[in-house]
Amino acid sequence: MALIISEPQTKKLVDMPTALKLVDGMFRARAAGKVRSVPRRRLKGSEKQLNMMAAWQADWDWICLRAYAGASNTVTLYNGRTGQIQAIIDMGYLSSLRTGAATGVAAKYLAPPASVWTESQETKGFYPADEQSREGRLEGGRLRWRS
């Protein structure tokens, strides 16, 4: 039986520190050849456009299909061996969280050494300008969620 995971449930399951670890691990798995994906595809409708992306992750052997049109944004997780649907997840919150976590991981690895912050240094930060990241910010070298 597939799990149906709502947006309020995702907020209880995943926080920013967890998202940072997961996204960092995903990039490492991709570099190791353990992730396959296909480019985003778009299908124009009369009023809206359906955007679709898919990926496979070897360690978990899950196939993920993300689809969104307007405010509707879901991920369907399939078992890579059986094709059985494991979960359908509302991605409203997780999409923004993932975008913020990817920014944090990029800053961790791409920032010049002189800009790496430690907990003992003065807190520095920036606010991302794009709409998807509007609730996140980078402080003390870590992305933190603003309440």
Radius of gyration: 17 Å
Structural class: alpha+beta
**Whole-number total of structural domains:** 1
Please identify which CATH superfamily we are dealing with. ornithine cyclodeaminase, domain 1
SSE pattern, N- to C-terminal: EHHEEEEEHEEE
Give helix % range. 25-40%
Describe the structure.
With 147 residues, the protein is of the alpha+beta class. The chain has a single domain (3-114), classed as 2-Layer Sandwich (ornithine cyclodeaminase, domain 1), CATH 3.30.1780.10. Helix content is 29%, strand content 37%. The protein has helices at 7-13, 16-31, 92-110; strands at 3-5, 35-44, 49-57, 62-69, 72-79, 85-90, 125-126, 136-139, 142-145. It has a 6-stranded mixed beta sheet. It has a 3-stranded antiparallel beta sheet with strand order 7-8-9. The longest helix has 19 residues, at 92-110.
Task: Write a short abstract of this structure.
The protein has 147 residues and is an alpha+beta fold. The chain has 3 helices and 9 strands, in the order βααβββββαβββ.
Write the layout of secondary structure elements.
Layout: E1 3-5, H1 7-13, H2 16-31, E2 35-44, E3 49-57, E4 62-69, E5 72-79, E6 85-90, H3 92-110, E7 125-126, E8 136-139, E9 142-145
Parallel strand pairs: 1-6
Antiparallel strand pairs: 2-3, 3-4, 4-5, 5-6, 7-8, 8-9
Helix pairs in contact: 2-3
